[in-house]
Amino acid sequence: ARDEELWRLACVKVWGLSIGTLDAQDAENSTVYYSWRDMFIRRERVNFSGCYISKTTYLRMGENSFQDQFYRPVQLVEYYRYIRFMPDGKVLMMTSADEPSQGVSKIRNVHNIRPDVLRGRYRLFGDTVTLVLQKSSQSRATTGHVRQRRGSVMPLDEDSNATQFLIELRIGHSPKRRCAQLVWSHYTLVQKRDKVDTSSEFDLTDAKYPSLWFSPVKSYHLDADAPLV
C-alpha cells in the first residue's frame, strides 16, 4: 500500500495533466510534497464517492387575503443544490426541492441525464475548482441521447444560442474530513444569442448561496464509467 507508483496513479486520476512534479513547488501556496502519497493526502481535491449538497431557506410574502386585508401569509421556501464530480473531469449540478435522500438518486445515472440537470466540466487550480456548465439539450432530452462510447458522455454542445454557467468554488475542510466544503467565490451567467455573448454576475450572499458540504453516497460506487483494467 506504500508503493509510490500506486499513489502516483491515484494522483493522476485526480489532477490529470495539472498534476505537476514532486520536486516543483505548488504555485498557489508554495507547498512541497515529499511523495505521491503525501500529495494525495495533503493537496486540495474534490471527492468522488458522493456529492456536495447545500440547503437554501428563505421567506416569501404571499398576497393579501380578500376577506381580511390585514392578513398576509408568509411562505417558507426550501431547496437544495447538488454538485457531483467525476474522475474524468465531468460534473453535474442540480437545484431541486427534493430532500437529499431522493435528490442524490437523480444524478446517479450519468448516462441518462435529466433535463433539469446542468452538465459540464471542471478544473482544479490549487484550492479553487472552476466549473463550466450548461443545460442539457432539449432535443436530446425528448428524442433520446446520441449513441456514444461508454465513458465518453456529456460533451459540451456547440450551439449558436446557448446559456453557460461559469462557477468558481474554494475548497475547504471540515473537522472530520478534508476537502469536504465548497465555498462560492464567483458565479457568472453567459448567454449567447446570434454569436453575441452577454454576461451577468450573481450576488453571492451567504443566505442565497450557502456553502456546499460533501455527503458520501453508497450507490455511486456501484457503476464504473469504463471497463476495469
TrEMBL record:
Residues 34-149 form the F-box protein Hrt3/FBXO9 C-terminal domain. Keywords: Ubl conjugation pathway. It comes from the Eukaryota. One of its GO terms (biological process) is SCF-dependent proteasomal ubiquitin-dependent protein catabolic process. One of its GO terms (cellular component) is SCF ubiquitin ligase complex. This is F-box protein Hrt3/FBXO9 C-terminal domain-containing protein.
